[in-house]
Amino acid sequence: MLKELFVSEVRVNILKTMLGNPSKPIHVRALVRAVDTEINAVRRELQRLTSIGLLRNRQSGNRIYYSVNTGSIYFPELLSLTAKEQGLGADIIKHIRQLGDIRFAVLSRAFLRGRASSVLDVDLFIVGSVNMEVLQKLVKDEESKSGKEINYTVMPEDEFTFRKRRNDTFISKVLSQSRTMLIGDEEEFCGI
Hints:
12 helices, elongated, 192 residues, alpha+beta, four-stranded mixed sheet, Arc Repressor Mutant, subunit A, three-stranded antiparallel sheet
């Protein structure tokens, strides 16, 4: 399966484009413009990705629209990989030294799927000693690109550990939501 996924630069660009907004179907020609390559290469890769179950297609009139198959067994991992390669996740990883001493950085899967957050949801959760000026700039830049507000919380490691041991409601919610670990080990993040 991995051999079929990562051999083509066109395929990688298609996946990055489509996983950036997995709920939005995209027409072949729009995808050609987005990945900036010839239509035959895009069609060939779309056929391959559809045949292995990562994409779905539907016809509407004389157009074929493609969308991510969120039911694919590989979807969560591909979404996590993409989150580390582009957008806010990539910016956090790229600026890790300027951000300070981060033990854990987590993005919610709802955020990665393009869903609007409720008041209680946290899109980005960071544990550690963080340079808030750098983080606020990264978040503000991503908000201006996406046009969506990003809910984030930063917590010192000792407070996180204390609240986790006390079964704090907020921390329990953060631990129970589906997520992508940008920085840190998931077992340590969830363990007491």
